[in-house]
Amino acid sequence: MDATDALKIDLRALSTNVQQFRAVLDDAFFSSLDQQEIAKGCVEADITVQRTSEETFDVVCRLRGEVEVPCTYCLEPMTLPVEAEDTLKVRFGESEGDDGETLTVLWRKGLLDLSWPLYEMTALAVPIRHVHPECDSEDDNDNEN
Q1: For residue 1, what pLDDT band results from cuts at 50, 70 and 90?
Q2: SS3 at position 64
Q3: Number of neighbouring beta carbons within 10 Å of residue 42
Q4: Tens of pLDDT along 24-47?
């Protein structure tokens, strides 16, 4: 089973207008995406899918957990807490796409893959500056001289 399989939701098969899912973005998830920003992590994803019409959905994603990223100064791994919430607009269409506001899922497949949107949400929740406390104090000492 692929690390991202739990994040693929068949929108056509939803039994109610609102359905909830839970997934864990773990080390296997982050390594499967082959990205440099986040090496490892354990982030819980609570996902609520609400059908707003026959062809549109609101997908609310809440993330909370920890990720491992390289320290900006020494490049050694460090763990940081992350927390994020976002609502994705999703609709059925004839071709897949993302116009920045709405994700379009092929009607004939009906499959919404949340792997990349959840990775992006997690990466955006990481502070731009991530530094070990000991590296930060060394930098402060360098600025005093």
Answers
A1: very low
A2: strand
A3: 15
A4: 999 999 999 888 889 899 999 999
How many whole angstroms separate alpha carbon 51 and alpha carbon 19?
9
Q: What is the DSSP letter of 99?
A: -
Tally of residues, the chain: 145
Q: How far apart are CA 56 and CA 101, in angstroms?
A: 13
38-74 residue pLDDT tens: 989 999 999 999 999 989 999 999 999 999 999 988 9
3-state DSSP assignment of residue 145: coil
Give which of 107, 113, 112, 119 is closest to 67, Cα–Cα.
119
For the entire predicted model, the pTM comes to: 0.86
Instruction: Give the 3-state secondary structure of residue 110.
Output: coil
